[in-house]
From TrEMBL:
GO MF annotations, alphabetized: sequence-specific DNA binding; transposase activity
One annotated GO biological process: DNA transposition
Source domain of life: Bacteria
Protein name as it appears in the record: Transposase
Matching Gene3D superfamilies: Winged helix-like DNA-binding domain superfamily/Winged helix DNA-binding domain
Amino acid sequence: MRKSYSGEFKAKVVLEILKEEKTISQIASEYGIHPNQLLKWKKRQ
């Protein structure tokens, strides 16, 4: 079964990416999400 994430959670993570304080890989490992998934969310925002 796939995990689903709320829009609020995705927005929070994307904002963290946009701050550029951490790398995509660091953020991905913190949240347990694949880096490619984070990049897809970033493109949609």
